[in-house]
Request: fold
Amino acid sequence: MSDYPAPRSGADVNWLDRLRSADRELALRLTGWTDFSWRLSIVTSVLGLLAIALTAAGPDPTGEELWRGLQVGLIVLAGTNALVFLAQRIADRVGPPNRGSVTIAGFAAIGALFGALAWAGATVAGLDSDQPPWVWLVAGAAVVAWWMTTIELGRYARAQAGIERRALAQRAHSVQEVERSSDALSSELMATLRHRLEPVGARLPETDLARAGQTAQVLQDEAAESVRDVSHRLWSLNPEVDLRPRTSQVLSTIVNKRPFRPALLAFLYVLVDAPGLFRNASVGGTLAILITGVGGIFLVLGVANAWMGRKPQWHARIFIAAIVVLQVATIVLAPWHESIDGRPLSLAEYMLSVPLSVALIMATAGFGSWWESSQSLIRDYAAALSTRESEVFAQAQASAASTRRIAQHLHGTVQSRLIAAAARMSAAAGKRDPAALEESIAAAMSALHSLDRGAFGDTEGDRLDGEAPNLAARVQARCVPWSEVLDIEVRIDPESAAGVGDPGQVELVVEELLANSFRHGGATTATVDIAAESGRVTVSVYDDGTYQEPGASGLGSRFIASVSESHSLEASAHGTRVRVVLQD
Amino acid sequence: MEGCAVRVVYVEDDDYTRMTTAALLRELGHEVVAELPGASGLMNALDAVGADVAVLDLDLGGGPTGLDLAVAVRRRSPKTGILILSTYADPALLGVDTPLPPRTLFAVKRALASPEQLDEAIELAGDPIRLGEAGLPDWWNASAQMPRLRASQVELLRDVAEGWTNAQIASRRGVREEAVEKSVQRLARALGVDTSGPRNPRVMLTQAYVRLSGSAIGG
Reply:
């Protein structure tokens, strides 16, 4: 039931979600109680204490009544703190209060209990309260619900910001890792190719070499710049991220960013405008003030936004002026409000409510602004990181393209491995999957290393354009494409290589026999054996297929007949063996 | 599946065609997970990145043909859709008589007259249910209908198109020249070539071969 960001399941879980999931609990614990939440709770505690004290003390309190009211307030606050502690444990399990009215209703219920405690406390203390119990309950519910909601919103915002910040930091780390890998690959491409090209005198297109070098250089430069930029934005001043709002941000948030938020706050302010409304105003009077206050604020906000939309600092001033005007209007109108006990509200009571209310509004606006500024910074950072990611993965795509093009100048299994690695690299870059990208880069580097190990890499078919292949290399190279459809083993007797007059002819015979094995025998494996027998070169292919007479015209057979001295075919349940003795 | 991104592995030996077609596939919203100039690396690429559809050129130069690769892909991955694109109206013209493996579509390149048709071909190849329900669209076989020829006739057509005389063909096949002459006559009839008219029937047979294969005559 939690509304905190939850990881998705199954195939949808990507690396970012995994990071978020792993980080979530830790972030919640670390950031659950923050300085900001404490400040808010202190403000609301003071307000609540004053409300209780004044309510308990009754109308026109004497100094002793006020002192006893304060004592009641302190006792009730202490008792309520225990309830709040419990409520927070519940809230941790249920979810953030801004996402569910059930939770806020729960806070209100606790608040009602709080009000009941206050009423009971006042009664036990012998205070002459003129309020019926339901007023105590409503007042308590409103104050605590407001109090808890504010605190929980602060906790939630902080936790969420922490989670996002950590996830973004991990993304930044991944990007840097990918940068390093791409850089290494580019260097590897350059070094390997140059090393391989020099001895054989072959040349690759300049564009590939240039791109490899360019990629390395660009990645190095941009990585350094990116890290500096990111650090400056988030970590250079404060490792815990300085998200404190500036005054101008607070004020502009109040007026511009969420025009309905201050209206809601005004509503709440009027609702908890302690102690005047709950103590003395009638229901009609309360409604009149609500309508006047909310309507007036809407009017002022609308005019301010329309008139001075580009100067938020002036908006804020106008807004605060409007608050003052409304307060003055409330005070001026006070004598005409009916009070429950028939007594007009005193000027002192209203005067007390003004700074308290403004403080409450400003504290809430401060929270809103903090939320806005933190979200704004996170959004900015995420956008910058996404841009950087796009650049890095575009570079990775370029590396994949270079790898693919370079592979086209190679032959043999290294070519096959490089092409596969380039395909994986391209797919991983498309999906922005740094882990898969690093794996594919490692595979490409491994293939390049194997090319660099010996004269012909892993197999004798591996070579670069421009290298003169011997018989073994030519036969191997001819077998490579067929190894996609057949599992091929090649065995070449060194003596036979010396006796071959035309290596091209041997290649063609091998290819023809492999094609027959696959197409007409349905084979999945084949062994090519080239040997010298009695001064003649023989080419034999053993496969696991079931021999069938070729349905075509037998061009291949005619070709083999034309170049062979003799050829034979032996078919059995285990496979087929074709043996061709080449002419001199 | 219509409108969905299809993950494509694309094998085409002609660099220009591969580059432009891959770009078009991406433009159509598909994900080209691998572009290969030949058979090498296909299975590795399929294993590494997976694909909904393998798009294979039929004539890949040396080594296995696109049809050979289709057979191997089908053995290895029963679910991967396969689309063979070819200039040849029929694989037989390339000397390949292997039947198409199951769930393999064969399309002649010149039948694809618009990007939308390529898109439709890719999506049909990847969606057997839709293919089973709707069948191939009308445009699919609108051009380059291949007359039914025996494998030996295809071979003879290619020999004629490559410029071999009846005597040379007879010598290579170990038959009499008159037999080759009769075979050429039967081939001309099968292809609807008028041998009694003023035009040289061998030139017309060569034109028929070029039309059906969609390519220059090989050496």
